[in-house]
Amino acid sequence: MKLKIAGGCGEHGRNCFFVDYTAPFLVDCGIMAGADEPFPNLTEKEIKRLEYVFLTHSHADHTGALPWLYERGFSGVIVVPAPTLEQLPFKPKYSIALKKLNGEIGGIKFKHGRSGHCQGAVWYEFHIAGKKLLFSGDYTENSLMYHCDPIRGRSADIAVVDCAYGNGSRSFSECCDAIVHAVSEIKEQRRTIVFPVPKYGRGIDLLRLFNENLPELTCCGDEHFMNQMNELSERRWYRNKTLYAKLYTPGTACDILFLSDPQLRSSYSQNIAESILAGGGAAIMTGTAEPGSVSERLINSGRMKFLRYPVHQNFAEFTELMKRNKFARVIPFHSPELQIDSATIEL
Ligand SMILES: [Zn+2]
Ligand SMILES: [Zn+2]
Question: Residue 342: which domain range?
Answer without folding.
Answer: 2-167+311-346
